[in-house]
Amino acid sequence: MNLPPVTGPGRGHRPGRIGLFIAQALSLALLLVLAGRLWYLQVPRGEHYQSLAAANRTQDLVIPATRGQILDSNGRPLVRNHTELIVSADFHALAEEKDGGDAVLARLADVLDTPFEELRQRMRLCGPEVSRPCWPGSPYQPITLAEGIEPRMALQIMERKEEFPGISAQQHAVREYPQKESAAQVLGYLQPVTQEELEARETLRTQFSGVDQVGRDGLEFVYDDQLRGTAGVRKLAVDSRGNVTGVVEEVVPKPGMHLVTGIDATVQQAVEQALSKGIERSKGAGYPADAAAGVVLDVRTGRLIAMASVPTYDPSVWDGGIDQSTYEKLLSEKAGQPLISRALQGQFPPASAFKVSSLSAAVENGAKLTDNYDCPGSMNVGNREFRNYESGAYGSLSLHRAIVVSCNTVFYKFAYDQWLADGGTNPVGDPKDPMVDMARGFGFGRATGIDLPNEVTGRIPDRQWKKDYWKATRNDSCKRAKSGYPEQDDPQHAAYLKAVATENCTEGYTWRAGDAANFAIGQGDVLATPLQMAVAYAAIANGGTLYEPRVAKALISADGKQVQEVPPVEAGELPVSDTTLAYLRNALADVPKEGTAAGAFGGFPQDKVAIAGKTGSATVVGQRESAWFASYAPADDPRFAVVVFISQGGTGGSAAAPVAREIYEAIYGFGPEPVDPAKTEVDIKSDEQDERDGAEQKQPKPALPGGEPPSGLPTVRPDGTVQAP
Amino acid sequence: MSLYPSKHARPTLGTRAGRLVAYGMPRRLDWVLLSAVLALGVIGTLLVWASTMVSGQAGGLTDFAQRHVAHFAVGLLICLVVASVDYRAPHAYAPVIFVVAAIGLALVLTPLGQVINGSRSWIVIGGFQAQPGEIAKIALILGTAMLLGEPRDGEHAPTGRDVVFSLVALAVPMGLILAQPDLGTAMVLGAIYLGILMLSGAPLRWVLVMLLSGLLAIFAVWWFGLLKDYQLARFATFIDPTADPQGAGYNANQAIIAIGSGGFNGTGLFNGDQTSGKFVPEQHTDFIFTVAGEELGFVGGLTIILLLGVVVWRVLRIAAGCEQPYARLVCVGVAAWVAFQCFTNIGMNLGIMPITGLPLPFVSYGGTAAIAGLAAIGLVLAIHARDRGFE
């Protein structure tokens, strides 16, 4: 203590004693507050914060399940998966790069031979301001930058990993269509899920990964949930910058179920080939033949065996995202709108094929099956002359004969007489309109309820429809009634159109005699789809049961253990007595033998399998005739209903019936050998196209041996391969 | 205290240098205080290490941890040097230290100053960074203790005039720090000043006036919008941390989650997922307590709180034993500093105090803060060694 003591009298005087005590107490209080808070956070609330922390540092990566295949009734794949190489990028890894990953993307653009700008756009996350190409999924999901790349490119990327941080190449399943264009509209297609779809379909939201696609049409749409399976989830540990540091847990995806359809790939192809040939024939005869449809139903179950629509397209154009020009082409009139299935979305006047309904209506309304009726070449209904096709006159004939030769005037008379009985232009309070009711009874005018989307209803015009239609078109009709059609070149046609417009303007709301007459032969405003026709004829064939057609036969889990059968659905009974139906079947059986389809079926072994059917030749103002042939076989013990329609293809007997004949030949093995699209047993996992060639066989082979569709289901073995029933 | 050279032992050293050293050696060391500080230093090093290591990468001390050890070593050396010197020597130089600190604070506002984390509280010369605000705390303690702890003849306690002088001593560093702005340090200065004033024996009305004006100042700052937006946002999220979970409330939320998830025993040192995931920003400095909370759990967190409590308790105990008012007030200033800063820092980690950007004394990473804190402990040790009250 050499330094002098501090001056001052402080010795002994300690003014802060109480103050120091207070300071100590205060410090202790603060410590207790801190300790208490720490205890509260860590002990009673510890678990709460542990769960928050877990959510903090994990991110879910959705692993899409392998989509189920769509199989034909023999287990042949109509749609399967094949793997292709894709290149994807880790959003966060690229964002970590100094230049935001531009240099990496530029190198990648070089390797992939794609524009750098495109890769950069695909790296952006979709948002209100950002439109495609952009990434619709979560940034934790690998962002797909290129699909279907060559293995050479993938190798380049994987070998130079240090040059491509965050970029990886891996295998990815895409839809493959081994039957090419076959049944394209029935199968449908996949497209990346949209925001609207996510909102509309609750179950999708939890499964959406961004790489996921959703069925947009056909079976892919209707059975989307079952085909999709359940996506797996990989919980990734991440740090605060989003870098993945490990895998916390993993729920493996549950692959989608396989959809077994009643479609027979061989019959399907036969229908398509017969339709194209038919179109060629019609074109050769000078008809436009712009579209066609064919339907084959199992009349005993209502199962669809084949359904084709021409023009068609190769559904593989949807793989990996369709480009705009291809998409526009698919929708264009010029390409014939191949996305539209004419079989259930095309509606046409059913013409004489509709007479089965009108005959039933007449008979159920009192006309005697034993009587004979006059069939003049033409008759006056109202103020207009209604004629037979090509004005043939057949004198007095039975109803059987009226069907066989397709007499119109008999049906005109039925309709006209009923119209008069109902009060004519001044109808009684509750007009009977039996033909309208019967048409509905045959299932016309409403959707058949098939398990395919966007089916149209056709049209059964009745008195109410006339009124509504008149209200909707009155203004236009009345304008035309005054101005006429000066743009028409043919003055006669223009005058006719003007007269129609005048009539429509002044009395378009009334159910006129002409409407009733046209209705009876399936003309005028009556519209039906080829599928409705097939359902109606199947009902005639099977004794009166209207089926809701089903494409699906069963859903089988990927391991084959679970099988959910899709049972046939009866929609109702024809309101027709068994006697009338039997009479009708007799008449229809004679059409291909001696009636309007006799020419088409000349030489067909009817002694082995008799065909029953009815032709129809629909006329629309301003168009050429469209051909119908609605039929079933065998006539004595029906199994299949076959309906063929060719728009502007000619008459039913000359254009449609030969197509139906070729379809029957393929089914029963009478004609030339159809090309076998695939062997009966196909390894699902094989990526290779089946190359087995059966075309050398000379002996025609029936597509459906014994004239029966397979009764059992194909089975899926535990290893994932499919065995024919 | 046999470890210390007694008066009898001194001559045996013989040489002049030996005499100087022996002369400089503190006669008494508060081993409890020093041990607590050393323990905090060790824990701090481990926590800095844990908070700055890259997950999944093995290896020794991280750069930050190594630098932390270096800072602490330098601080400890300064602490022992200060402890060896008679506490009245820094007292003599208090005006010099005060002026140096004021110049440092002024330099911060020149182009030499650098903005780090929204406050301009650093001077960077060459590769060397320093926070003059930390030095200002010591300067304020010495200055205020001198003005209030050395009553003139005939007076037992500081008068109103002394208080006015001391206010000037407060106003200079306070003004410069608020200009940065560094609200946290300004609050610490206020706490130090109020602590010293209250225990100085100054007239009670002055103490009350100062307390009231301190509260008024906080209110005025908030009311008149003197705070920067980020500071306001911090205060807003202090009231409701979930208000803006990705923005200003993020720190507060993540800190609570990290601490809460530690549970009673913690996840184990170097095993904290929140820590290795770097969810809490600034976790090696202002939010280092979250690392303790997560990895060492309630046990570790409480240990830190208790050790800091020991430091405050020992410093106050030394203050109580002081003969000299000046010495007592220096101890009180240091205690106020440590207590206030610890409570504010841990409190903001635990979500019961607003986020103000203060490091945890003796634990957080930061060179100037470590050195200043240890120097302050050195001062207290020097007082303990030499004040007549301990003879």
Automatic annotation (TrEMBL), chain A:
Q: Which domain of life is it from?
A: Bacteria
* Coiled coil start-end: none
Q: Any keyword 4Fe-4S? A: no
| GO BP of this protein | cell wall organization; peptidoglycan biosynthetic process; proteolysis; regulation of cell shape
> What kind of membrane protein is this, topologically?
Single-pass membrane protein
Please provide, alphabetically and separated by semicolons, the GO molecular function terms listed in this UniProt record: penicillin binding; peptidoglycan L,D-transpeptidase activity; serine-type D-Ala-D-Ala carboxypeptidase activity
Keyword ATP-binding present in the record's keywords: the answer is: no
- Give TM segment ranges: 20-40
Indicate where this protein resides in the cell. Cell membrane; Membrane
Q: Where is this region: Disordered?
A: 674-725
Penicillin-binding protein transpeptidase domain: residues covered: 294-665
Residues annotated as domain Penicillin-binding protein dimerisation: 63-247
Q: Which UniProt keywords apply?
A: Cell inner membrane, Cell membrane, Cell shape, Cell wall biogenesis/degradation, Hydrolase, Membrane, Peptidoglycan synthesis, Protease, Transmembrane, Transmembrane helix
Which segments show compositional bias classed as Basic and acidic residues? 676-699
Listed under GO cellular component are:
plasma membrane
Q: Which family does it belong to?
A: Belongs to the transpeptidase family.
Q: What is this protein called?
A: Penicillin-binding protein 2
TrEMBL record, chain B:
The transmembrane segments are 29-49, 69-85, 92-116, 183-199, 206-225, 296-316, 328-350, 362-383
Q: What is its main location?
A: membrane
Q: What is this protein called?
A: peptidoglycan glycosyltransferase
A GO MF annotation of the entry reads:
lipid-linked peptidoglycan transporter activity
Kindly give the PROSITE patterns that the UniProt entry links to this protein: FTSW_RODA_SPOVE (PS00428)
Membrane topology note = Multi-pass membrane protein
Task: Give the record's pathway.
Answer: Cell wall biogenesis; peptidoglycan biosynthesis
Q: Which GO terms describe its biological process?
A: cell division; regulation of cell shape
InterPro entries on file: Cell_cycle_FtsW-rel_CS, FtsW/RodA, RodA/MrdB
Species: Nocardiopsis ansamitocini
What is its subcellular localisation? Membrane
A GO CC annotation recorded here is: plasma membrane
EC assignment: the record states: 2.4.99.28
This enzyme catalyses:
[GlcNAc-(1->4)-Mur2Ac(oyl-L-Ala-gamma-D-Glu-L-Lys-D-Ala-D-Ala)](n)-di-trans,octa-cis-undecaprenyl diphosphate + beta-D-GlcNAc-(1->4)-Mur2Ac(oyl-L-Ala-gamma-D-Glu-L-Lys-D-Ala-D-Ala)-di-trans,octa-cis-undecaprenyl diphosphate = [GlcNAc-(1->4)-Mur2Ac(oyl-L-Ala-gamma-D-Glu-L-Lys-D-Ala-D-Ala)](n+1)-di-trans,octa-cis-undecaprenyl diphosphate + di-trans,octa-cis-undecaprenyl diphosphate + H(+)
Domain of life assignment: Bacteria
Q: Provide the alphabetized UniProt keywords.
A: Cell shape, Membrane, Transmembrane, Transmembrane helix
